[in-house]
Design brief:
Elements: H1 5-26, H2 30-51, H3 57-79, H4 97-106, H5 109-126, H6 133-154, H7 183-204, H8 209-231, H9 243-259
Helix pairs in contact: 1-3, 1-8, 2-3, 3-6, 3-8, 5-6, 6-7, 6-8, 7-8
């Protein structure tokens, strides 16, 4: 049992720290954020290539980290508004059923296509590799995020809209506020069973240290993703884990609102007043 604690703690640290790094970089101007993210993406792809034949503890951790970095690039492309969808407007008040679903899908379809293309590319690259941990990790993140998105769309009481940048605040109009939806118990049950099975297998019957490490890393990630689902219905908000980011964004919004009266036509910096 002791052998799985190091990769489990590593997965926990990378999940929390990686999210914080993405949020921090996302506060920079779009060009700078995407530039830094693209540099990290290049390094991550190189790490996937190097670790693909390395079926040991180090190789599993490197591949896992690389997949998190690739995922982080996609998150940055979304949070900066560079890769979202053709629709960038709030949901009309009367939209229901299929119309509402089509509009919601149009707000992020380009992002989803990019994720699907990346998953397919990693699948073709690593399907027969000695170390497919990067593929497993990215697929787990993708499926978990799809599940969260559908749960938010169908309805949840505690949606962390605080993470949305100002330019993407319109996305909140597509969220539903409900005590529960029918998909939620399926999502958390499946996540708990899969994560528990992988961690138990890693601790008891894994044939090699690589197998134990790989199963622990991905199983722990699925467990954390399942915890994110629970944050949708618990009184404790997920935003509390990154309170520094939320507080900073709130202060910036308050400062902009305080300065808004100074932006009247009479006080605007016209060409003659410069």
């Amino acid at each position: 049992m002791t052998s799985i604690w190091i990769p489990a703690l590593f997965a926990l640290f990378l999940w929390w720290f990686g999210t914080g790094i993405v949020l921090l970089i996302g506060r920079a101007p779009r060009a700078m954020a995407l530039g830094l993210g693209t540099l990290a993406l290049g390094g991550a792809l190189g790490a996937v290539a190097l670790s693909a034949t390395q079926a040991d503890f180090t190789g599993a951790c490197v591949a896992f980290t690389a997949a998190i970095m690739i995922w982080g690039w996609h998150e940055l492309s979304f949070l900066t508004g560079a890769l979202t969808g053709p629709r960038r407007a709030p949901c009309p008040p009367g939209a229901r059923g299929w119309l509402r679903f089509r509009m919601a899908a149009a707000t992020l379809i380009h992002h989803e296509i990019a994720l699907a293309a990346t998953a397919a590319g990693l699948g073709l690259w690593l399907w027969d590799a000695a170390n497919p941990v990067a593929l497993w990790t990215f697929l787990a993140l993708w499926i978990l995020r799809l599940s969260v998105k559908f749960n938010i769309y169908l309805g949840a009481p505690n949606v962390a809209v605080e993470f949305l940048p100002d330019d993407l605040r319109y996305l909140a109009s597509y969220f539903s506020r409900k005590p529960m939806n029918l998909l939620f118990p399926v999502s958390v049950t499946a996540g708990t069973v899969i994560a528990g099975g992988m961690l138990l297998h890693a601790a008891t019957v894994a044939a090699t240290p690589f197998d134990a490490t790989a199963l622990t890393l991905v199983g722990m990630l699925i467990a954390l993703g399942t915890l994110e689902h629970w944050f949708l219905v618990l009184s404790v908000s997920e935003a509390s884990l990154w309170r520094w980011y939320i507080d900073t964004r709130a202060r910036k919004r308050a400062n902009r609102a305080h300065r808004a009266p100074d932006l009247s036509p009479l006080s605007a910096p016209t060409l003659l007043r410069r």
